Amino acid sequence: MQIDGDGKSILRVVPMADEREKQRIKVIKDGPYRVTGGLPLYEQVIVTDEDGHSKELVDIKEFPRRETYILCRCGASKNKPFCDGSHREIHFDGSETASRKPYIEKAEVFEGPDLKLTDAPEFCDHSRFCLRAGGIWKLIQKSDDPEARQAAIEEAMTCPSGRLVLWDKKTGKPFENEFEPSLVLVRDKQKSCEGPIWVRGGVAIESADGSMYESRNRVTLCRCGKSENKPYCDGSHWMNSEQKLQFQKKWGLDPNKRQ
Ligand code: SF4
Ligand code: FES
């Protein structure tokens, strides 16, 4: 059974500013995400290059437009991507543990000749777009080379979680796509699983306690129920605890000390 938040599923035509105001993802305590404001919902698959590195996300489905819909957050629904009430049966603990500190205050800075990279590893959804051509951290070191610069820009702009933001040192501006506010269900074919919900275009995200998360152009939300950084994805849809531990060690993350 597909549960609709208010039982209405008719797409209404409303003025742009009004529509934007209503566009929101509300985290429900120990339950799903309620999505309002007619936000488009797509499904995309990660496409890899000849070396097996993630390269781009390609549309495989567009869901019919609905004013309001409820997306599963616990991973147990039999009607995915929508919630069917299973979170109650499994006694889902959806506690939100993510830090509320703004991204820029958390990010580490890596500088190259022409580009600056800000990097907040705790947002990583482990979709691996940053590993092509030697990896973005190496590429920015030679960002005065046009080819390396272009690859670094592409990788940062594709990073779904917004962990990585690349800045032009001359203009001081970040490289960002102009996304229509929308949600994408990511499918990770290489890892044979469903990935996170990629939220694009600065959609407002409201915590179960009524406070707001920082509004960003790119973030990824957990939909398997296993993230230790809820509501954000932390790669738990394919990573085991040993792999997560290794990543935390590598980047100096202490999940018990999130601020
Ligand atoms: S979320 Fe961003 S930083 Fe993490 S693996 Fe994907 S591209 Fe790399
Ligand atoms: S959150 Fe309701 S079934 Fe998963």
The span between the termini is: 39 Å
Mean pLDDT: 92
Would you identify the regions where 5 or more consecutive residues have pLDDT less than 50? 1-15
| Largest sheet geometry | 5 strands, mixed
SS content category: alpha+beta
Count of alpha and pi helical runs: 6
How many runs of DSSP E, i.e. beta strands?
A: 12
- What overall geometry do the principal axes of the alpha carbons give? globular
- Alpha-carbon Rg, integer: 18 Å
Along the chain, the helix and strand elements come as HEEEEEHHEEHHEEEEEH
- The residue fraction in helices comes out at 10-25%
Q: Which cofactor or ligand species appear?
A: iron/sulfur cluster, FE2/S2 (inorganic) cluster
Sequence of strands across the biggest β-sheet = 4-3-9-10-12
- Percent of residues in β-strands: 15-25%
Q: Oligomerization state of this entry?
A: single chain
Structure description:
With 259 residues, this protein is an alpha+beta fold. Helix content is 16%, strand content 25%. It contains six helices and twelve strands. The protein has a five-stranded mixed β-sheet with strand order 4-3-9-10-12, with no helix packed on it. A four-stranded mixed β-sheet has the order 5-2-1-11. The longest helix is centred in the middle third of the chain and has 13 residues, at 146-158. The radius of gyration is 18 Å and the shape is globular. It starts with 15 loop residues before the first helix and ends in a 9-residue tail after the last helix. The structure holds iron/sulfur cluster and FE2/S2 (inorganic) cluster. Residues 31-32, 72-74, 76-77, 83-87 line the site of FE2/S2 (inorganic) cluster. Iron/sulfur cluster binds next to loops.
